[in-house]
Design goal:
Elements lengths: L2 H24 L15 E7 L2 E2 L4 E10 L4 E9 L5 E4 L3 E7 L4 E10 L6 E17 L4 E18 L5 E9 L10 E9 L5 E8 L5 E3 L6 E7 L4 E10 L6 E12 L5 E12 L5 E9 L3 E2 L3 E10 L5 E9 L6 E5 L1 E7 L4 E10 L7 E11 L9 E14 L10 H29 L1
Parallel strand pairs: 2-9, 19-26
Antiparallel strand pairs: 1-3, 3-7, 4-6, 4-8, 5-7, 8-9, 10-11, 11-15, 12-14, 12-16, 13-15, 16-17, 18-20, 20-24, 21-23, 21-25, 22-24, 25-26
């Protein structure tokens, strides 16, 4: 081929290339434009929070976005509840306008059924809207209806610990006023869906119920998995004079969930305090009223049942006390039965030692009785108390006759005068002789 032929061929190829390049420039780039850019696309991009617990009723924020290049109007979101997770209040939310690439946050209220087990639950959402854009062919804005698009939101339901109390038992079974070191056992149960840790119970005692010793109003159970139970043990003292009744003692339970969040619940333990007899010395007196060393004394002690039930087989007895100079001839007296608020006088007798010092002595008394057996109270009760008895004068060493001392002085004076007169008569007789 000649040089002229090669030159003409090269020129033809160049012209062809330029033509193809110009045709490429004329072709629109619609084939590489994203599909969403020429349509509207309403979707849900975020949900907060997504973790719920059984029984929760929570405000949830849902973010709705238009991911398309055209505006969306008259948007309707229809939330469809399920058996375990559902909406409270309106189930359809309306949004007037979402311009292209814009978003909007809306609030819904979600409730989780108390019996819902752990797991992921979805709520279907039906979304419809009208697409709004400028139609260049018609030279005006038009709206196109788009219906039936299915969306959804999901929640992770995680159970939480629910702490309750079960059986309560006491030792002794029948609690009465004045009882000490009463043992209370309480079953602490986790009836929730999640584990609870660092579980501690504290009995909130008061003047009527006090810890038997330090720390006996607290009980530590540690970890309780779902469905587990452990026994909390307390020891308390019951106040004297407390009325027979059923009392509720508050029980505070503190625990943590598996994430370390702390919780506190209040429960109540019911304790039945049974009736009990109780005694006090109303008054006492002695005959003679003023006691001397060597006297024989009758002691009258008046007692009263100030308790809440009848006392049976009551007896009053003197108790031996160190350095008390009384020798009881009649140490005890049987009273019988006394109903609440009833009184009776017991009689005891004793000799006072002849060398008893002049002072007041504390004499011990013991009141013994049985509870009201008709009420099932067969307990034996002992009540110890003290009464002051004074010795006011020393022993005379013999029988004391009123006026004897004056008569003795008169006789001594007469006897003295007689001796003096006898001596004077003797001296006069001696002088005559």
């Amino acid at each position: 081929m000649s040089k002229n032929g090669k030159g003409r061929k090269l020129v033809s190829l160049c012209v062809l290339g330029m033509v193809l390049f110009m045709l490429f420039l004329l072709v629109p780039f619609t084939s590489v434009v994203p599909v969403d850019a020429i349509f509207s696309s309403v979707t849900i991009t975020d949900v907060t929070p997504t973790e719920l617990h059984p029984g929760d009723t929570r405000e949830v924020t849902v973010t709705v976005k238009n991911n398309g290049g055209r505006d969306a109007r008259d948007i309707n979101l229809a939330f469809q509840g399920t058996e375990n997770v559902s909406l409270i209040g309106p189930t359809v939310v309306h949004i007037n306008t979402l311009n292209s690439w814009c978003w909007k946050e809306l609030e819904i209220t979600v409730h989780v059924k108390e019996e819902a087990t752990n797991g992921v639950y979805s709520i279907p959402v039906t979304c419809s809207w009208r697409e709004y854009y400028f139609n260049s062919t018609l030279s005006r804005y038009v709206a196109t209806e788009i219906t039936g698009q299915q969306l959804g939101i999901s929640f992770n339901v995680i159970g939480k610990g629910v702490i309750n109390i079960g059986d309560v038992s006491t030792d002794p079974t029948d609690i009465r006023p004045g009882d000490e070191d009463v043992e209370i056992r309480v079953d602490i149960e986790n009836s929730g869906e999640a584990a609870a840790k660092d579980v501690e119970a504290k009995l909130l005692c008061n003047d009527k119920f006090k810890p038997s010793w330090s720390g006996t109003d607290r009980s530590y159970m540690g970890r309780l998995n779902s469905g587990d139970s452990k026994e909390a043990i307390f020891h308390i003292d019951i106040a004297e004079g407390i009325e027979a009744n059923t009392y509720g003692i508050p029980l505070r339970i503190r625990y943590k969930d598996t994430k370390g969040e702390e919780y506190e619940v209040m429960r109540e333990i019911n304790i039945l305090v049974e009736p009990k007899p109780e005694f006090e010395v109303v008054s006492f007196r002695t005959e003679p009223a003023d006691i001397s060393a060597g006297d024989y004394v009758t002691l009258y002690v008046r007692i009263k049942n100030v308790g809440s039930e009848e006392a049976e087989s009551i007896s009053v007895r003197s108790t031996g006390e160190a350095e008390v100079p009384f020798d009881f001839d009649v140490k005890s007296d049987y009273v019988g039965n006394l109903k609440p608020d009833a009184e009776w006088t017991a009689v005891l007798r004793f000799d006072v030692d002849t060398d008893a010092s002049l002072k007041t002595y504390q004499q011990g008394l013991e009141i013994r009785c049985i509870g009201d057996r008709e009420l099932g109270d067969y307990n034996v009760y002992l009540f110890d108390m003290m009464i002051p008895i004074s010795v006011s004068s020393s022993s005379t060493g013999g029988i004391s006759v009123p006026g004897f001392e004056a008569l003795f002085s008169l006789l001594a004076l007469i006897f003295g005068f007689a001796i003096i007169g006898q001596r004077r008569t003797k001296k006069a007789h001696d002088k005559k002789g």
